[in-house]
Structures are given as C-alpha cells and as structure tokens.
Amino acid sequence: MKKLMDIDIADIISFSKGIIVARKDTLKSGQTKISFITYDVKLERPSQSTKGAYLLNKFGPAYEAITEKLGDYLSCDAAILPNKHVAVAYTTGELGLFDEKGNLYWTGDLQYRDCPVSGVASEKKYLWCVVPDNNCVIRYSPVTEKIVLRIGGDSSTAFLHPISIKNYNDVLYICNHQSCKIRTIDLKNYTVSDYKEFEEPIYKYLRTNDREIVELESGVYML
Q1: Which of 81, 132, 140, 175 fits a disulfide with 85 by CB distance 3.0 to 4.6 angstroms?
Q2: CA distance 69 to 101
Q3: Are 97 and 103 within 8 A, CB to CB?
C-alpha cells in the first residue's frame, strides 16, 4: 500500500482521474475550514481543487439544487441511479431522493429493526444500504418503499459494524469497521466473500481509474 495523505478528512469521493478529498482544518478561532484536494492516481500527484468539482462528482449535474436543499453536503453519502436520480443518505437513517433536476420528491427515515441505515449504493431500481448496529446489509425498493432483502444480521458474523458500501460491476464492497475487513456480495448469486483485511479500522473503499483507494484510521492509501 502507498500512503497518499493523513490529513483530517471530512469526506472522500472518486472522480474520473482519482479522488477528491474534503480536508478539515481547525482555525485559531476554533472554526472549521473545509478545503478540497484532488489526487491523480495515474500521475500520483495531489493538487488543489474546488467545492464545485467535489459537488459535481458527488451529486451530479443538478448539484446546486440538491445541495441548496441539503445544507449539510459533507456528512452524507450519495449514489447516482441509472435514471439520473440521486439518493442521499445520512448516518441517522435519513434518506432523500432527488430527480434529475434536483427536485426532492421523497424523504424519510429508513430503519431496520429500529436501527438506522447508513451509506447508499445503487443497483438498477434498488438501493443498498448498511445497518451498522444490526450487522447487516439491506436492499431497499424506492418504488414500494420497502426493504426487500437482508443479508447478515441476527447471529450471523457476515458483517461486523458495516459502515460504507459501494457497487462496482454488480459486486457490492462493504467496509466493516469492527473486523477491519472489506467483504463483497456478488449480486448475481448473493454470495458473501472476503476481499481485503487490514490491521486497523476501515472507513471507505473506492475504485477509480483502475486503482483501489481505502480510507483507514491512519490515513488514505492506494492499494
């Protein structure tokens, strides 16, 4: 692994050439300042970025309308659906759905067994989320507003405090904070497998430009 940065991170997302990181700095006044950094994974070089570039890559072309309604655009996860709609999820379980023009057409609190969901990844007409406090992953239908599938939970040890989820080529990558593992779910047959294991907690896994990026407790690394 190659360590890319160990700054205080508010958020990290992928874009066509690498990653964009929202950096958090505390000023002498006690206020928090957010700045943005890109890292080109091919050139292996960081550079200054802009808030606009971060928002465009996180929420898509309608980012101005979406972020105006959100307010807090940093602490949420977002997934762009095949129909260009955008799903936004907070760790509190609050979920919002926006159309391609950035209009909010549904919002609510999504829970499984009284535990809030977190993270969001899209699969055709469905959304996948993790449930950290129930050690499971759920598949949610925005059309029926129902959870249609659960993997893990109860006495299962398939997932241990999963905190983030991504879909790459119909394989879900789930970061498990407690076990320090990335586990996968193959959406063709729902098989759960180990993918990577680390010696410290993992927060996020990203794929971009044929590279793999992880956010661990000690910083951001390229595998």
Answers
A1: 81
A2: 12
A3: no
211 within 8 A of 218, measured Cβ to Cβ: no
- Position 28 scores a pLDDT of 83
What is the 3-class SS of 133-195, one letter each residue?
Answer: HHCEEEEEECCCCEEEEEEECCCCCCCCCEEEEEEECCEEEEEECCCCEEEEEECCCCEEEEE
Mean pLDDT of the chain: 95
Contacts of 188-195 spanning 24+ positions with Cβ under 8 A = 190/149, 190/151, 192/151, 192/152, 192/158
Residue 99 Ramachandran class (φ > 0 left, ψ -120 to 50 alpha, else beta): beta
Backbone angles phi, psi at 214, to 5 degrees: -130, 145
Strand partners, 53: none
Residue written as token pair 């940093």: 74
What's the token pair of residue 68?
A: 């105006």
Residue with tokens 């904070």: 177
Chain segment 117-154, per-residue pLDDT in tens: 999 999 999 999 999 999 999 999 999 999 999 999 87
CA dist 149 and 78 (Å) reads 20
Q: What are phi and psi of 22, to 5 degrees?
A: -90, 110
> pLDDT tens across 35-56, in order?
999 999 999 999 999 999 999 9
Torsion, Cα of 129, 132, 137, 140 (10° steps): -40
Do 142 and 104 meet the contact criterion of CB atoms below 8 Å apart? no
